[in-house]
Amino acid sequence: MELRQLTALVTVAEVGSVTGAAKLLHVVQPAVTRQIRLLEQEFGLPLFERTRQGMVPTPAAEVLIMRARRALDELERARAELRPEPGEVTGIVSVGLLESVLDILAQPLTDAVAERHPGIELRLFTGYSGHLQHWLDTGEVDLSLLYNLSDTPSLSVVPLLREQLWAVAPPDAGLVAGSPVPWATVLAHPLVLPVSGHGLRALIDRARSAVPVEPRVVVQTNSMLLQKNLVLAGHGWTVLPAAGVAADVAAGRLSGAPLTAPDVERSVVLGLQRRSRLLAPVDAVSSALTRLVRELVGSAVWPSARPTGRV
């Protein structure tokens, strides 16, 4: 097995065709076909099905592609880390970000790393906490923001902050950040909520169970953006972390206020793989992210949040 075979495999899987892969790799099409055929001969299994939609990986190929992509990423990291400028931290760092913090964290983090460590290439991944934790466990990301998590055998967790959940409604509802909204008021409206099984939904269900009002859930979704759009379209109210709606409330697109009776908080933590020592670029990005969270909480850009741990 050769690196060019793995490169051909991953590229064909990503673009869905041998022709497209050949163009990206700057080789002729038969060369890519030959690399795939050699891999199929080595493993004794077909790796792609040719369909009208293009080259579709077989189940066996999916396993190999996942491992090949990781091996190629590690080699790329090694090249970056072994050729640094004197005194410069270089490398590739994959960061997991919760969907609810993208608006206030993604660009400032990118700016901070570019300014302090221009030799680091950031790779930002977004998802729900459960997905991010899985990617951290499997090594697909180097560090990740998570919520309501303690240390595990494979992960080290640094507490960062606690934030209140907010009721979110159309602008004409007139919710104001300085006037908390009781759950009973929220439950009197149709609700657009995260799907069952989502970590945020578990917090919501636990809180509303303490209020003797039966909720009317009209839509469930796994997209925070869709939650907000459906509220804006008049389908109901929703519940979200303050960070996820701060920009919308400030712009007047939505109105929002902290929930009370009962109060509901989530803890946001930084998850890291347990290692004897962090790689220099991972440590640099971890420090930059922690510093940035401290600044956002201290300046109230991250609303309804209070620091915990070393932040």
UniProtKB/TrEMBL annotation:
What's the superkingdom here? Bacteria
Domain (HTH lysR-type): residue spans on this chain:
1-58
InterPro entries for the chain: LysR_HTH_N (IPR000847), LysR_subst-bd (IPR005119), WH-like_DNA-bd_sf (IPR036388), WH_DNA-bd_sf (IPR036390)
Check the record and name the Pfam families matching this protein. HTH_1, LysR_substrate
* Keyword line: Activator, DNA-binding, Transcription, Transcription regulation
**Family statement:** Belongs to the LysR transcriptional regulatory family.
Tell me the protein's name: LysR substrate-binding domain-containing protein
| Biological source species | Pseudonocardia adelaidensis
Its organism's taxonomic lineage begins at: Bacteria, Bacillati, Actinomycetota, Actinomycetes, Pseudonocardiales
